Amino acid sequence: MSGHDTAARNPTDIGVTAGRLACALTVAVVLAFAPGCRTGEDNVHRWGTTENGPRKLVAVLTHDKYPMDLRVESAATLVSMKPRGGRRIGIQGTDEQPGLVDALGQMSPTSRTALIAKLMPRLQTEMAKPPPVAQAGQPAPADPSIPYKDAAFAILTYEDGALLPDEAQKKSVRASLAQWSTTNFAERMDDSSQLFGVEQMLRELKADGVRAIPAMMVPGANKLDRMADLVADFGDADTKLSASEKLVAVARDTSSDNWVKQKRPAVEAANKASKLAPNEDQLKAQLAQYQEEELLRDFGSMKKIGGKPVVDYLLGYVQDKNGLEKRRTAAMAALQGNLDRNNPQHAQIVLSIASDVATPDSLRDVALQRVGEFPRPVVVARLYDLFKNENWKIRWVAASLVLKMSDTSQVPEFMAKIGQAEGLAITEPLSYGGLLADMKGTPSAVSLADKYAASGNSMPARLTALSYYYSVGTPADLPKVAPYEKEGTATPKCKADAKECEWKCTVQGASGQDTKDIKTVGEFVEFCVKPAMMKRAKAGSK
């Protein structure tokens, strides 16, 4: 399959039939032997602007009767032709006749190699020319290097490199294409006049294509997120490390007072244009929001790249207690997948933030998510310490993490620890029971549920075990919970100052839903566990 079979190409892209080539060769014979006619560069250049010119140019290109320099000139003229009907037919061809690349594909290897050896340096020279500079208040001028770049890429990728068998030449072309793609990067990324977009080319060039991108990752650079995407996808280790260092420098700049000072005139001008007149405090708030938005974008790019520089910077950022909650939370989110799972220091930092009573709730929630990325032996002891936290929600998240990273052989340890907890909310055992039901291992989850539901165990452990049936029990399991329906042992009580802590269950009564206060084990079974089990009977019958 041709290397050009991509979604970015036109449906009628390069392709040539024997009939089309025969037509081109017929023209070549006529041109070569017509009495009194001699084809020269003037003819070639003129044909680039005439209706039938492309056919004649292909004829000269493919016929051995013509001098090699004239054939190269014909090829270059096909490349430089202006688009017709929105298509670069000199490169792409049409349904009726081949363009440059397919014509090259039909030539003999010897002639083709000699011609490309002379053509490619011309394409590379045009590609290396600096892009045009837009004048103030004027639209950006067309980039004249694009057709030469498109032709070079088409030749490089034609049928998996069949047109460029020489490895040294192929390497040179790849380097030229990489340089072109990373020059004027933001503008060329958006240029829709290309046959092959910048991203498509970099995906072909892979590590070679993105090696120069980190140098462009500077404060104020456009499309920083796209640069990060490409380096993350295709960069080698050294390129990713360089990008990581560059992104840290960008984030430091964005979070600085100097950044605010630089952006202030632009914000003031925008206010003036919008006929807004904020006072000094309002202007500072605008700038702070602007800075925060940019910094969060920087963190998003950091998350994609990772690397030691990024991780060290973000860990420092999340530990700054003077930092704003939203920014610290975003920095913690950007560490997802980037922490060293076997680094106790990384685990210690994240666990310390999660367990600090002064940590904002939003930051703690994300910190506990990061804790879940570490192996159980590294973090489980500190998670158990969180069971003593005054905030039941912190214990709930910590306990849920422990269960998610455990198997059934570790349930006795969990039950012992949760049994010491005070001030449980009903949400806790109900969710722990569901996690128990999902666990694998020996002994089975159901045997553990039956064991810990029995009297003699701690109340948190018993309610967790009974909640196994709340999550997965069916009417067939009702005999398992029946012994506890009338039990009057008291359930835990919420602490007086606990927020959103309650012991209630909603049941379906004769006149609608009814909320029941849960004060005993029997009420827990009757109004919480059994109704959930019975609902599964109805769902099964449906």
Topology:
Elements: H1 18-33, H2 41-47, H3 53-62, H4 68-80, H5 89-92, H6 100-106, H7 109-127, H8 146-157, H9 167-181, H10 185-190, H11 198-205, H12 207-210, H13 224-234, H14 237-254, H15 257-273, H16 280-305, H17 308-318, H18 325-334, H19 344-355, H20 361-371, H21 376-385, H22 392-404, H23 411-418, H24 427-438, H25 445-453, H26 459-472, H27 478-481, E1 504-509, E2 512-517, H28 521-541
Antiparallel strand pairs: 1-2
Helix pairs in contact: 1-3, 2-4, 3-4, 4-7, 7-8, 7-9, 8-9, 9-11, 13-16, 14-16, 14-17, 15-16, 16-18, 17-18, 18-20, 19-20, 19-21, 20-22, 21-22, 22-24, 24-26, 25-26, 26-28
Characterize the structure shown.
The chain is mostly helical. The chain is built from 28 helices and 2 strands. A two-stranded antiparallel sheet has the order 1-2. Strand 1 (504-509) and strand 2 form a beta hairpin. The protein is elongated and about 110 Å long.
| Shape annotation | elongated
How many DSSP H or I helices?
A: 28
* Unreliable segments of 5+ consecutive residues: 1-36
The main β sheet shows up as: 2 strands, antiparallel
Number of strands: 2
**Percent of sequence in beta strands:** under 5%
Order of helices and strands: HHHHHHHHHHHHHHHHHHHHHHHHHHHEEH
Oligomer: single chain
User: How are the strands ordered across the major sheet?
Assistant: 1-2
What is the helix content? 55-70%
Report the end-to-end length measured between terminal Cα atoms: 52 Å
Q: What is the CA-based Rg, rounded? A: 35 Å
Class of secondary structure makeup: mainly alpha
- State mean pLDDT (0 to 100 scale): 91
